[in-house]
Amino acid sequence: MFNDKLDDVNMSIADDDESGDEVNMKEDRTPTPVAGCDASLILDNSRGIVLENGSNTNMNIARGFNVIDDIKSALEKECSQTVSCADILVLAARDSTILIIEKVPLGRRDSISASLCGSNNNIPALNNTFDAILSRFKRQGLDLVDLVVLSGNHTIGNSRCTSFRQNLYNQLGNN
Asked: Can you tell me which residues bind Ca(2+) 1 (predicted)?
């Protein structure tokens, strides 16, 4: 039954015209520096949970959360508490980037907490230099190869010029 429902998740994501533009690999991988890929980024404010997507580094990436919410609502009607938001997020990210070649391992557990402080302190900011970004990765036990691989996720989809202009043209602040 679980695998049948996962097929339904795959179909829901594939049928959603918006998911390709709105859900991207950054949304799947951004939570990694805070507490792992546990979907804590998409938690709503409640019972003392302060949103991570309100952190300085996550302000502009929440465009696709409505797609995740729609998928989760549809799944809850069919099979309540069967498929985690973390798995929905990773499947949506996979399908929105048309990387269906490999199977995505499932079985993640949803977070029950969020960390605004962890998000602000561990996710590289838009204006960080390369050395600052690498330093944040190293604090999480990641290396230069991890930085390159995870940064490659940002080459898929749409970005605003304000998200990367300084990193391209103004590293020293003099031009």
From this structure: 34, 36, 38, 40, 52
